[in-house]
Amino acid sequence: MLKKAIAILILVLTVYISFDALLPNKISDLNTPLNQFSTDRALLQLAELSKKPHYVGTNEHERVRNYIVSQLEKLGLKTELQEGYTISKWGNITKPINILVRIKGSNNSKALMLLTHYDSNPHSAIGASDSGSGVVTILEGLRAFLNEGKQPKNDIIIGFTDAEELGLNGADLFVNKHKWAKDVGLVLNFEARGSGGPSYMLIETNGGNAKLMKQFVEANPQFPVANSLAYSIYKMLPNDTDLTVFRRDGNIEGFNFAFIDDHYDYHTQLDNYARLDRNTLQHQGSYIMPLLHHFSQANLKDVKTNEDYIYFNIPYFKTVIYPFSWIVPMLIVAIILFLSLIIYGLKIKKLQPKAIGKGFIAFVLSIAFSAIIGVFGWKLILLIYPHYGELLHGFTYNGHTYILLFVAISLGISFLFYSKVYKINNTPSLLIAPLAIWLIICIAVAIKLEGASFFIIPVYFGLASLFILLRQKQPNVIAMALLCIPALFILSPFIKMFPVGLGLKMLVASAVFVVLLFGLCVPVLGVLKHKKRWSYICFLLAVTALFIAHLNSGFTPDTPKPNSLIYTLNTDNNSATWATYDTVLDKYTTNFIGENAKEASYLNNNTFGSKYASGFTYASSAPLKAIPEPKIEVYNDTIIDNKRYFNICIMPQRNVQRIEVFSDSTNLFNTFKINGVDAYRKKGDSLVFKNRNNNRLFSFFVSENEEFLDLQISVPETQKTSLQLFEASFDLLDNNLFSIPKRNTNMIPKPFVLNDAVLVKKTIVIE
User: Fold this and answer.
1) Sheet order of strands, 598-599 included
2) Exposed / middle / buried, residue 213 (Cβ in 10 Å: 0-12, 13-18, 19+)
3) Computed over its alpha carbons, how large is the radius of gyration of the chain?
């Protein structure tokens, strides 16, 4: 009995350590030696950077830029500002202002670049984490590095890019238009997509990662959180960073360091100084110092290769790497060992075909029931709590409690099914099904998702457990627990990583992963008596988690409801509309939209660009307001070689932050320049804006001291060209023409959509 208790304790402690080892648990204070990173010193700077939203074009944006420049100058560094128009592949155009510094190295080789962005997301995000944390990580890391007084071997380029939030425009400007770009050999990019949790290392490379991973291991960061599965998934998602531009346009390799937990704070006014996890900032500091020291001396001309490495982190061993070329041999050896052990077990009659069959039934049913509950359970929760849909991130404020809920349910299901099949001495037979399923998974990932091929490592320890179970009459359950440690160390964090990284819709992955891990722990869990009791304990824990989640399902000042409100003036027909993106109206929006609001799909013919392709949900008529409409001037209208050329000058008569231009998808455009910049054109396309999925042409984000938007266009001679112009100002709450009350303390502006805006629509027709 005591041995079983110790074995269970080992499993529990292993799971705890697997999470605890991901983050530093102590931050460095102001007394930290000057040649070391201090989180408290970085926080002093963060407090200055994160006072207000500082998106492109605002006075606060300029203040933040000037503050960063002043901090660099305090370090004795000469700054350079790079400015110019760029347009992203998403059709977002603006004029970013990058802050650049170059520290001369002793050897004229490739340069190391430290990279982050300093703008916040329009219009309410404070930007403490995204990416004030990146700014202060670099400033404090650079200060500590320079304090040692040693000249680096490689040049070090520091880049604080602008307009990352609008479409990676600052990175585009640097990579494609700055002379230093060709000198960069490696980039360290610091980012955030939440306000806490461990910082994941993700590689950006056009080739293989082998040389980069060898160098990363050699640099020896203290708390590495990195695995090749995470990057394989990352490459499938539309989540680009500034580093993507370096890889795509400059063929420059690099590392991303980004924390993603507490995702509900992302791009909201909750992304503030107070909510940034201090241990997370310490984690960023634990990356920059060893990597800055290492790569400022390394040969950055030799980082490219076609060879790939599997990599994963594990407590105490940090980062483990091995070549992709080992995947198939390791898989073949594991399969041979598995089949050999089955033959051997059957021969000595330690394996019983009937018990093996029952083991498969228990394991497969555990997976199936957990998966079904994972899928439909979350859908049921969304039906019960429809207001969760207002959190476009897909991760609710009580999301971590829901992870616990589904973990407990899956454990309860597993214990329940295994209580039906376990008998004394049939544990080896029950282990066959988990090992077989894991081997099938390893075969699948070797074919489709090679980055996950480190899953084979826990399987080898499972095979070792099976060997001991076959060889010993009464195996030591503590020894069995020790053999479970690698599986728990490597795989446990994924139970949380999947829903945190991909949204709570991925709770099904967590549920299934729990069962898969349970299977590898059958040598311990399978021999426990009273499995039904363990099952009931797990279900009781699930009920408790559900109750706690319910108590925390409402909106409070600490967990506020995101909502939205737009006023649109249509100058074409002299009408006005209130509109919202909310699916569940509240007291704030009902004041304007009304309790009997109309469904607003008719407004979505021209959908404004947003991260989640959100459209207006409800609308109602609004009173007309005397909002100045833009002045439009058409000039240089000529016809040459069956093409019509003309310029359109758009002159806003009020302080606007964003201009959206749409045109029916049947309109053709031979050429299209926006303030002198060619509109984005896919390689090989003969026309601009060809094969677009909707009517949107581009979004123009107004930067400092801009008074007009100039378009140079050519179209087929006989085409009647119509452009729909939407001019947006983010001043609905402050505009003297309106009396909009402040939001309640349990509400915040909804992120990712146009919000708190006054829109003016005007159609321009060229006949």
Assistant:
1) 86-87, 92-94, 696-701, 658-662, 721-729, 757-766, 566-570, 575-580, 618-621, 598-599
2) buried
3) 29
Cis status of the peptide bond prior to 131, with omega within 30 of 0: yes
The answer to whether 7 touches 529, Cβ cutoff 8 Å, is: no
Report CA torsion sign: 15, 18, 23, 27: positive
Tell me if 159 sits within 8 A of 96, measured CB to CB: no
Q: Please check whether residue 273 is in contact with residue 408, taking contact to mean a CB–CB distance below 8 angstroms.
A: no
Closest CA to 425 of 343, 338, 526: 526
Return d(Cα 762, Cα 26) in angstroms, integer.
Answer: 56
Tally Cβ neighbours within 10 Å of residue 327: 20
Residue 336: burial class (beta carbons within 10 Å; 0-12, 13-18, 19+): exposed
For 391-449, what is each residue's pLDDT tens digit? 999 999 999 999 999 999 999 999 999 999 988 889 999 999 999 999 999 999 999 99
Q: Which helix (H) or strand (E) holds 487?
A: helix 477-502
Q: Is residue 418 within 8 Å of residue 362, measured between CB atoms?
A: yes
**Calpha distance 656→272 (Å, rounded):** 25
User: What's the number of CA atoms in the CB half-sphere (13 Å) around residue 125?
Assistant: 29
- By the 10 Å C-beta count (0-12 exposed, 13-18 middle, 19+ buried), 718 is classed as exposed
Per-residue pLDDT tens over the stretch 612-641 = 778 899 999 999 999 999 999 999 999 999
How many secondary structure helices (H) and strands (E) does the chain include?
A: 20, 26
In terms of Cβ atoms closer than 10 Å to its own Cβ (0-12, 13-18, 19+), residue 744 is middle
Q: What's the rounded Cα separation, in Å, for the pair 551 and 530?
A: 32
Query: Which DSSP symbol is given to 669?
Result: B
Instruction: Give, rounded to a whole angstrom, the gap between the first and last alpha carbons of the chain.
Output: 89
Predicted local confidence at residue 159, as pLDDT: 98
pTM: 0.95
pLDDT, tens digit (0-9, with 9 covering 90-100), for 281-330: 999 999 999 999 999 999 999 999 999 999 999 999 999 999 999 999 99
